[in-house]
Each structure stands twice: as structure tokens, then as C-alpha cells.
Amino acid sequence: MLTICNKVVIFIYITKQKREKTMYTTVNEDGVLNNYATEPQVYCAEYPAIWEQRKYVLQGVFATLIVTTLVLVGFSVS
User: Residues with Cβ < 8 Å from 11, sequence gap 6 or more?
Assistant: First the structure.
């Protein structure tokens, strides 16, 4: 799947290089201009490494503690 994704990225990058030289504008039959935004570069996401996964677990624990503390303070105040 990674090789397929790399081919897509290369294809999009080549077509993007060709498109940057032209304007993204069309004109309809009434003479109204229609401008198009440039497309962002596409890339494939990689699965996080084991140390990144551990960091995400630690962040989740801290977020859970903060939310739990806020809920308990809210109940105690009301």
C-alpha cells in the first residue's frame, strides 16, 4: 500500500508543478470568473512509533485527570 501511495503522491506532485504555471480561473457563459484554490500537497501518514504511542497514552491519562478534576470541582461547587 505504501508503494501505491508513493505513486499517487508523485503523480499529484507532477501535476501540481504543471498547474502552478497556469491560473485556476474559468469563465462561464455570463462572463463571471470562477477562481479555484490551489490544492495542498498530499502525503501518506505513517503509523506512530512505539515511543509516540506511549506519549499519546501519557497525554490521554493527563487529559482524563484534568477533565475528572474539573467535573468533580463543578459538582462540589454546585
Answer: none
The upper half-sphere exposure of residue 16, i.e. CA atoms within 13 Å in the direction of its Cβ, equals 12
Burial (CB < 10 A; 0-12, 13-18, 19+), residue 76, is: exposed
Q: Is the pTM of this model over 0.70?
A: no
Which residue stretches of the chain are H helix? Answer: 2-19, 50-77
Apex CA 47: angle with CA 46 and CA 48, to 5°? Answer: 110
Cell of 78: 454546585
Cell matching residue 41: 500537497
The predicted-structure confidence for 43-73, as pLDDT tens digits, reads as follows 899 999 999 999 999 999 999 999 999 999 9
Cα–Cα distance measured from residue 5 to residue 44, given in angstroms and rounded to the nearest whole number: 7
